[in-house]
Amino acid sequence: MVIGETPPAPARRMGAMMGGTVTAVSSNGEYAFTKPNRPGITLLAGLGVEGDVHAGVTVKHRSRMAQDPTRPNLRQVHLIHEELFEEVAEKGFTVRPGDLGENITTRGLDLLTLPTGTLLHIGAEAVVEVTGLRNPCLQIDAFQDGLLKHVVGRDEKTGAVVRRAGIMAVVTIGGPVRPGDTVAVELPDGPHRPLDRV
C-alpha cells in the first residue's frame, strides 16, 4: 500500500480491536452440556465445527429443533471469554474451558459488546460472523447449582436482561482453529445493532 493511501475498509475496521487470543477449543459429537477440549478443531463454512453435534445448516439445539427444525442454524459456533471464568471463581464456582459447552474460549476480547454481524478472523484462515448472544438455560444450574444467576441477570438501571454466557456465530470461511491463534475483529458497517439472544 502506498504511504498516504487510505487502507481498505476491513483493515480500518479491524485496527482498533485486534489482540484477542484463542485459549482453548472444544467439541463433542454427542449431545452433552460440556464439550471436551481438543488440540484443534476445524471450522466448516456454513456448517460449524467439524464433528460437533451442533454443526449443520439448520438448527441442531434440541429445544429449537422441537420448535421448528427447518430454521437456519445461527448457533454453529459458541464462543466464551475466559475472563468470565475468573469472575465466577470469585463467587466460588470452578468453570474451565468447554464446561459451558463453548467451542472456542477466548481471552483479551470483549465478545459481549460486539455488534451483530461482526466478523472474527481466527487463526490464519477461519472467519465467523457473530449472530447473537447465547441464551443461558437451567442446564447451567444443573452443572453447578447457583451458577445461572451469575451468567444471566438484569441491568440495575434499565431492568433489561443481561446475558453473559458467550456469543454465537456462523462460519463464513472454514479453517483450523487451535489454542494460541489470534482473533481479529472486523466490525460491520454502521449503524451497529447490539447483540440479542439467538
From TrEMBL:
Gene3D superfamilies, per database record: PK beta-barrel domain-like
Limits of the MOSC domain: 36-186
Protein name listed in UniProt: MOSC domain-containing protein
InterPro entries, per database record: MoCF_Sase_C, MOSC_domain, Pyrv_Knase-like_insert_dom_sf
